[in-house]
Amino acid sequence: MIEKLLFEMNSYAALSPATTEVLKTICQVKQFKKNELILRAGEYAKYYYFVCKGLLGYYRPDADGNIVYKLFFEENSFCASTAAIIEEKPSKFSIVALEDVQLIQYSAKVFRELIATHHDLALFQLAYLEKNWVVKKEPLEIELKWKSAKERYIELYKNQSLFKRLKQHHIASYLGVTPTQLSRIRKELKS
Predict the structure, then answer these.
(1) Fewer CB within 10 Å, N- or C-terminus of the chain?
(2) Could you give the percent of the chain with pLDDT greater than 90?
(3) What CA–CA distances, in Å, run from 191 to 29, 69, 183, 187?
(4) Could you tell me where in the chain the CATH 2.60.120.10 domains are found?
(5) What is the pTM (predicted TM-score) of this model?
(6) What is the pLDDT of residue 149?
(7) Do 129 and 12 touch, CB atoms closer than 8 A?
(8) 2-117 maps to which CATH number?
(9) Among residues 56, 109, 107, which one has the least CA distance to residue 79?
(10) CA 173 – CA 61 distance, rounded (Å)
């Protein structure tokens, strides 16, 4: 399992054998059942996760208590409440297993300490953040402001590997619409 994590990390920046060995010592394989919470909003985020198998949802409740999904994490994805880790504050988001999942978990505190002493690990973190929190995230933020729910649905639909795994209420929540509105969008697109 840890080989998957190391392969993914090396796709961002080459890690030295010494860094690889240190990483192996901080990683733990964890299993979570469908609907089990990995992190609850209000708790301190202590870990980074790498998804080996399964699907995670990253969400927070709105003012009315409805769940609003921000992101979904499939296999070979890194997941964490990153802002909470950086700010050392309780997470505003929860992470839930939407399927049975197998994760690699590693301490955020220890990992961040290793970044200070392992230059190659710092390069990995920088490349990862640039690609996933700047390049990938920026268009999503623009879509939320400018695209209709129908257009966002079409974009989500294009990612069939993810789309087929989501329940309709997950999709509606992610799009910021009610299940009834989602049904109208789907009906409109079929005709």
Answers:
(1) C
(2) 71
(3) 46, 28, 13, 7
(4) 2-117
(5) 0.88
(6) 87
(7) no
(8) 2.60.120.10
(9) 56
(10) 10
